[in-house]
Amino acid sequence: MPEPNQKNVTEIDNDLAAIAARLRRSTAQVFPGNGRGSGLIARADGTIVTNAHVVHGKRAKVVLDDGRELDGEVVAKARERDLAAIRVDARDLPVAEFRDARTLRAGEIVLAVGNPLDLVGALTSGIIHSVDRTARRVVADLTLLPGNSGGPLADASGRVVGVNSMVVNGLAVAIASSVVKRFIASPSERPYIGIVAQPVQVPVMGEQRLGLLITDVADRSPADRARLMPGRIVIGVGGALLHSPDDLAAAVDDSDVGASLRLDLLDGERVGGIEVFVGDASRAPKAA
After folding, report:
1. CATH number of the domain enclosing 40
2. Most confident of 8-12, 33-37, 186-190, 261-265
3. Residue 11 belongs to what domain range?
C-alpha cells in the first residue's frame, strides 16, 4: 500500500486549520448569566445571532474572538425558530459566509465551532445526516455539548449552513441557513396568518390524504380577512399537497410579511384555492 503524500496531508491540515480560524473569528461567546453559549456574527455592524434558549432577559455579555468583552442588548427573539439577535456596540466585525442548506447532500463533511464546557472556540467535525423536507433543519452526525448552542455549523469550505440548536438521539440539529438569514433580515417580524388547525385524513380524488382542519381563526387576522372559517380543511399550500402537519407552518414561517400565500381547500370532493396575505404577529390586534 503506497505511503500517503506528506505534502498533501500537510496542505489539507493547513487548509482545515485556516477554515477553523476563520470560523472562530465569526463566532462569539455569549454569557446570558451564569452559563455560556455561542453566537454567530451576522452583521458587521454588531449583530450577533444565537439561540433563543441561550439568552434570558434583555442583556447578555458577548466576548469576541479577539478578546473584546462587550455588553449586548437582546433586540429580538423568535422562540418558535429558537433564534435571538443581540446588538453590540462594534463595527467592521468579521461576518460569516452563508451557504443555502437546501443544496446539502447526506455525507458531506461539516464543521461546528462553539464554546462547550470550559473550552473556547472548540472545533468538531462530522457529516450531514439529513436535511428535513421543509429545509428548516439540518441534522448532522457530529458531537455537540452544552455551550455549542448558537454556534455555526459549516461546510468543508467554511460556509455556514446552520446555527446549532440541540441534540436529538445523539445527532446534532441546526437551524438551516435560509431560516437564519430571513431572521437576520427582519428579526422583529413574525409571519403569521392566524389559524389553529389539527391534522386529519381526508379523501382527495379517491386517495386518503393529509389535511389540516381549521379549528379557530384569530379575529382581524389575515385568515379572518380572507374569510377563512373554522371547519375548512387545508390540503395544500403554494400548489403542493401537504405531506406533514408542519408544512403549512413552515410555508408561513418562510414567507415574507405582506406576501400572498395560496392555500388549497377541500370543499366536499372539490379542491379550491384562496389567497391569504401573510401578516406580522408582532403587530397583530390585541384581544379585547
Report:
1. 2.40.10.10
2. 261-265
3. 6-87
Mean pLDDT of the chain: 89
Q: State residue 35's pLDDT score.
A: 77
Which residue is catalytic, options 65, 82, 253, 264?
Answer: 82
- Residue 110 and residue 131 in contact, taking contact as beta carbons nearer than 8 Å: no
Q: Among 53, 125, 132, 246, which one carries the catalytic annotation?
A: 53
Is the confidence at residue 47, as pLDDT, over 80?
yes
Residue 130 counted as domain residue: yes
**Distance from the Cα of residue 72 to its chain's centroid:** 21
Q: Which of 133, 158, 185 corresponds to the end of one domain?
A: 185
149 annotated active-site? yes
Global confidence as pTM: 0.75
Number of structural domains in the chain = 3
User: Known catalytic residue: 56?
Assistant: no
220 in any annotated domain? yes
Cα gap 87→100, rounded to integer Å:
24
Q: Which of 149, 177, 178, 255 is catalytic?
A: 149
